[in-house]
């Protein structure tokens, strides 16, 4: 492992640059290693990030490596933010033929250079790319994870908070399954102040008997409200990634809904999908499999089936290991 806290980022588009900025502003890293094949874009981002350091908690070494992916091997964490946002205008599946092919190129180069750190992938379709990276990587599954529904879980908390008039940080709620349109709110586990939403609904129906289907629909499609107005999403997903990175580097044992390898949960295995996970220095240290009612288990299976269907469209995809 590198001395200090060293994070590499592959892809310096909207998401990659905001991840870098969040890590610097929050004082999470000591060094950033930035990989981007477009030299002029990379030089511009390095200059801009460097200019911002005077306003940050501490100095950060910023090292551009262009397309020399092997130079990422000394990092504690490598973040995959490669993508083509124009392909995802209608659906996260729009990048299916692009982002996995990119990962197939650079992941083996980083691994073969001696990388022993943790992969965090943001690129869409997130669960497909996470599955691919796991199958290409040399180490155990816990050292590969995707941001998955960490962002979507924040969106449902935001949406529910507006409805009930409480701070979103006070709400416990998780989106599960695919980071895509087949994801779903695990309503059976939603709680506020330790009290299940179902109980609060009985106590104070005027406030807590919310339209769950409408709230879920709003949360699931929230990213596309953002996309419609500015043709990308950047702030929220970057902060979701930064939270996971901090949990790893600081060994927080934080519970986050993120994309992890399924090893029999609800009878599913060999693909990545989101469940609540304990994230610490080793990556995904434990998967917390919630006790879902039958209708939510059925939705989880449907979400996994969609992920498998995407993988099946890539005839070069490596088999499970």
Describe it.
With 321 residues, the protein is an alpha/beta fold. The chain has two domains: 6-146, 3-Layer(aba) Sandwich (Rossmann fold); 150-312, L-2-Hydroxyisocaproate Dehydrogenase, Chain A, domain 2, CATH 3.90.110.10. The chain contains eleven helices and 14 strands. The protein has helices at 14-25, 39-52, 99-112, 126-136, 150-164, 197-203, 205-208, 212-220, 222-230, 235-249, 294-312, and strands at 6-10, 31-35, 61-64, 77-80, 118-121, 144-146, 171-172, 175-176, 184-185, 191-192, 195-196, 254-263, 269-280, 283-287. A six-stranded parallel beta sheet has the order 3-2-1-4-5-6, sandwiched between helices. Helix 4 links the parallel strand 5 and strand 6 (144-146). The relative contact order is 0.14.
Count of individual helical segments: 11
Number of domain units: 2
CATH topology of the largest domain: L-2-Hydroxyisocaproate Dehydrogenase, Chain A, domain 2
Mean pLDDT figure? 95
Q: What is the molecular shape?
A: globular
- What separation lies between the terminal Cα atoms? 25 Å
For the secondary structure, the number of strands is 14
Order of helices and strands: EHEHEEHEHEHEEEEEHHHHHEEEH
Described by strand count, sense and barrel closure, the largest sheet is: 6 strands, parallel
Kindly name the structural category.
alpha/beta
The amount of helix comes to: 40-55%
**Rg on CA atoms, Å:** 19 Å
Poorly predicted ranges: none
The assigned CATH architecture of the largest domain is: Alpha-Beta Complex
